[in-house]
Amino acid sequence: MRRRSYESRDKRILTRAHVYQSLMACAFIFAAFWIVHAFESELAIASLGASAFIAFSFPHAKSSRPKFLVGGYLVGAVCGYIGSALITLVPESFPLPGYIPACAMAVFLSMLIMTVLNFEHPPSAALAVAVTLASNPLAMGLAAFGCVAVLVIIKELLKNHLRNL
């Protein structure tokens, strides 16, 4: 009987952690969307949402470490900027719109560089696509990088109060 009460108490604590950490991700995405909206960079919110999920659901996992979040976003933003420049290099005779090979190249470059430098953070490849497609790729890259820097600071300050869900 004693074991059963321990299990129910542990379950209650996990439920609080789930709600608390999910609310933190929600608050971060709300603030991040506000920031990226100011830069007309809403497409970046998809990668930021995935990163917030990783940071607050698995705060002690490898892909949630500052090196991977910051390094991955830096690589993704730079590769996206390169991808945006490649759009203009695709000849008009190419059978597909220029953004398609440019986005594919941005993902290729971000994956290659992240794995070589050991900065693997999958949502950063999505950022590379978002920056490639942006009307102002520099502003989008900077806005997303600033948001992920804030995410890292929040997660690191609260790390002792977070658990892997």
Give the low-pLDDT segments: none
- What number is the mean pLDDT? 86
Number of strands: 0
Quaternary structure? single chain
**SSE string:** HHHHHH
Q: What number of domains?
A: 1
Determine the strand fraction and express it as a percent band: under 5%
| SS-derived structural category | mainly alpha
Globally, the shape reads elongated
- Helix-residue proportion: over 70%
| Cα distance spanning the termini | 26 Å
* Helical segment count: 6
The biggest beta sheet reads: none
Radius of gyration: 19 Å
Summarize the structure.
This protein has 165 residues and is mainly α. It has helices at 2-38, 45-57, 66-87, 99-117, 123-133, 137-158.
Could you explain how this protein is built, in words?
With 165 residues, the protein is mainly alpha-helical. The chain has one domain. It is 75% helix and 0% strand. It has helices at residues 2-38, 45-57, 66-87, 99-117, 123-133, 137-158. Helix 1 packs antiparallel against helix 6 (137-158) and helix 3 packs antiparallel against helix 6. The longest helix has 37 residues, at 2-38. It is elongated and about 60 Å long. The model has no long low-confidence stretch (mean pLDDT 86).
Topology:
Elements: H1 2-38, H2 45-57, H3 66-87, H4 99-117, H5 123-133, H6 137-158
List keywords for this structure.
single chain, 165 residues, mainly alpha, 6 helices
